[in-house]
UniProtKB/TrEMBL annotation:
One of its GO terms (cellular component) is cytoplasm. It holds the Pfam family OTCace_N. It comes from Methanobacterium alkalithermotolerans. L-ornithine binds at N155, D219, S223, M224. Its main location: cytoplasm. GO terms for molecular function: amino acid binding; ornithine carbamoyltransferase activity. Carbamoyl phosphate binds at S47, T48, R49, T50, Q74, R98, H125, P126, C127, Q128, C259, L260, R287. It is an enzyme of class 2 (transferase). This is Ornithine carbamoyltransferase. Coiled coil: none annotated.
Length: 300
């Protein structure tokens, strides 16, 4: 039994998972492989894509997705996460959780006898990273190019940096000083990049980072939980906005990516996200296919 808490947990399965995701997208997989199975979906934070794609995904696989808000669960009234994990494991075949603290998800997994899947924490967003690589493969054909992640060294950035290090894709994180990914993530990514040959860079210099970019990726400047820092964050991130001027400095065929939800006028502009280089809707769609591959592999 395995959990998916970090993208590193599926380090050796990424290529086969991407193949399965592609087959699900093309309707080439067996029907109802998860018939009779139930996925508990715990949400401590808001979600549109993750919630819908997991619920619809379970449905399409012949199983059931059970939406559970922490406001309604006894966790919200103080029941330990370890007890929740033990009880839940007696009812369901897998648990997907979106939580504020990554350490809570580790605690849940430690006490669960069914697979636990990370649907976003403060540290990582592994399901997003898998869907992102599916999208890059579709639009670029391979992982030989370079991604520039502009903005906050956050959960989405962390999983992307790790998956690039695993797959050998070059990546630059262009962020203001003080907003770099955590040291533990950089250390893990750097050590895996030694094996894969990925060139990784963390730099405050966005203009030089984008000159040879094949993919420009950004995310909100204020993640869920960072709301108290809105003012200083908007000020610090202003030079990192992905606008038409920045896009024009990258390779001519560069694509624009964003995990969504987006704020037009902050981390990107309407011209870019709604423009011809944007692949954000394919990216959102691929959450469904990539997660069906994850569910198939973990719950079957
Ligand atoms: N990208 C993503 O996880 O979106 P939601 O917050 O809508 O689930
Ligand atoms: N970094 C964002 C991603 C949302 C999908 C957040 O954590 O709020």
């Amino acid at each position: 039994m395995k959990h998916l808490l970090s993208i590193c947990d599926i380090r050796h399965q990424i290529s086969p998972l991407l193949e399965i995701a592609d087959k699900f997208k093309k309707n080439q997989m067996e029907e109802n492989p998860l018939q009779g199975k139930t996925l508990a979906m715990i949400f401590e934070k808001s979600s549109t894509r993750t919630r819908i794609s997991f619920e619809v995904g379970m449905n399409q696989l012949g199983g059931t997705g059970l939406y559970l808000s922490t406001d309604d669960l006894q966790i919200g009234r103080g029941e330990p996460i370890s007890d929740t994990a033990r009880a839940m494991s007696r009812y369901v075949d897998g648990i997907m959780i979106r939580a504020s603290k990554h350490t809570d998800v580790i605690e849940l997994a430690k006490n669960s006898t069914v697979p636990v899947i990370n649907g976003l924490t403060d540290l990582e967003h592994p399901c997003q990273a898998l869907a992102d690589m599916q999208t890059i493969k579709e639009h670029k054909g391979n992982f030989k190019g370079k991604i520039v992640f502009a903005g906050d060294g956050n959960n989405v950035c962390n999983s992307l940096l790790l998956i690039c290090a695993i797959l050998g894709m070059d990546m630059a994180v262009a962020c203001p000083v003080g907003y770099e990914p955590p040291a533990e993530i950089i250390k893990k990514a750097t050590s895996m990049a030694l094996e894969s040959g990925a060139h990784l860079e963390i730099t405050p210099d966005i203009t030089s980072a984008v000159t040879d970019a094949d993919v420009i990726y950004t995310d909100v400047w204020v993640s869920m939980g960072d709301e108290s820092q809105i003012k200083e964050r908007i000020e610090s991130f202003k030079p990192y906005q992905v606008n038409e001027e920045l896009m024009s400095m990258a390779r001519e065929d560069a694509i624009f990516m964003h995990c969504l939800p987006a704020i037009r006028g902050q981390e990107t502009t309407a011209e870019v996200i709604d423009g011809p280089q944007s692949v954000v809707w394919d990216q959102a769609e691929n959450r469904l296919h990539a997660q069906k591959a994850i569910l198939y592999s973990f719950l079957k």
